[in-house]
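Q: My labmate handed me this sequence with no annotations at all. I'd like to see what the chain might look like in three dimensions before we decide whether it's worth expressing. Could you predict it?
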Amino acid sequence: MTSTDTICAIATAPGGAIGVIRVSGPEAIAATDRIFRPMSGAPLAQRKPRTAVFGHIIGAQGEVVDEVLVTHFCGPHSYTGEDSVEISCHGSSYILQQALRLL
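A: Here is what I predict for the chain of 103 residues:
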């Protein structure tokens, strides 16, 4: 892995009601913006960092995969020190895997 890589992974233990996917790296916000549609307002790239945004993860055919809360953080003021996004979705392993596949 290099500093130009963007990675995503499930950040919570399996079996919970809520699952969190963390995306980190230089393309974290752009990658999330490709699959996330906020219910109102601008895409993540145009929003204030460290604020939660409600919306939907959208599948390849335009279908709603899940309702989510998304928070983005700009490096170096993030958990990883890089630009990062946390997607809080339903904890179903199917939903989490679908979101990872889309990312």
